[in-house]
Structure formats: C-alpha cells, structure tokens
Structures
1.
Amino acid sequence: MRIIIARASGGIGNTLARNFDKEDKELILTYNKSLEYYRPKLAKYEILKCNFTNKDEVKELYDNFSKIDVLINTMGGISNALVKKMHMRHG
C-alpha cells in the first residue's frame, strides 16, 4: 500500500508516519520547509520536498507515482493560532 503523508515533518505527520511504519507499506513523506521528520524503520519510504501551494511542485510529485492508495493531508491552521478559541459542535 502506497501512502502519501503531506507535511509529514509536523507533529501529526510524524505520528502518522510512525503508525504506518509497517513492512507492507510504502510511505511518501513530504515536507515544505522543516526536515525534522520520522524515518521509518520497516516501511519503504521516500522523503520529498513539496510546497502544496505551488501547482507545479504538486504536479511533479504526483507525476512520479503511477498509483497512490492513500493521501493524508496534515496541513492546516487557524488564523488566530489559539487552540482554546476553537469550538467543536457535536450533532
């Protein structure tokens, strides 16, 4: 199974890389600026630079792989950067 973890250099991305570090997995770990990432021990892996706001870099990334099974996007943020101001509603 080939899994791309977008922005794998962040805290969530590192945690996901650790959880998917299995012999039957192939991980494509991307970063934009930070190179602080988990290096898998069991899975095959590649670490690639990709700025997902640049369509040419995204196209180049996806053109290199004929098959992608899972894409996990860990990019995101909030404008005020305060978690305590985030609200969740339960339905």
Note: The two ends are 34 Å apart (CA to CA).
2.
Amino acid sequence: MGPRKALYLFGEVAGRQGGALVVRVGPHTIQATYEGTLDAGAAVSVALRAEGATLHRTAPPDRINAVSGRIAYTVSLGTNAEYEGRLAGDSGLRVVEQIPSGVPSFRDGDPVVVAWSPEDTIVLPGSRASLAETVA
C-alpha cells in the first residue's frame, strides 16, 4: 500500500456546534469546517488532510479532533519512522514521523491517538457504499 494523501472516516452528521459541522464516527465526534447544509443523521465521509495529522499517546487538550487506534507495524527509515495503523471504523492510517534521534516514538501494537484541526477536515456527503469509487 502506498502513502495515503488523506485518511477517510465514515460516519453521520450529529448537528452543528457554533460554525462547525459535528460528525459522529464510531465512538468519536469530529468537527469540520463545512458551509453546506446537511441534515442530522446524513451519511458522510470525513477526509483528513494527512499533513495536518499528528500522533499522540493520549488526546491532546489543544486539538478538537482526536481518534484512537493502534499501530499495526512500524518501519524505521533512518531519520524517519513510518507507521501503519487502524482507527475507529476500521480505517487505515499511514503516517511518517521525522525522528532525528533514530528511535521511533511508537512500536507495533501501541495505542495511538491521531489528532487534527477542523480546518484540515473535508466533508463529502454520502455513505461508504455511495462513495466507494471516490474514496477507495
């Protein structure tokens, strides 16, 4: 599997909070900048811009969006570590971390939290089935 340009999570619209669209993805709630109109309960795909994601051991207090998962495997590449993981809703994740020390921050099997901002979130109306060809 090659590097991903975005991470896709599937869920449903829970409503609005302030100016943000709130989406339920499994046990998690995600906020996205979205100016369109979607009814509560509408199926959506949430695409996370990979460059906006950061990995943590616990949810950081300064990030609105945080989804838990687990590292499936780690590959050390000199001053980089590449992590493959599984998140809520069985979504895959691939993240490359710069590690000047040469020691990866996470190991296979470690729990992880992926965090990002609402501005790095793209909402695509539709279910997993209806968007299958778009968000493979």
Note: Confidence is low (pLDDT under 50) at residues 1-5.
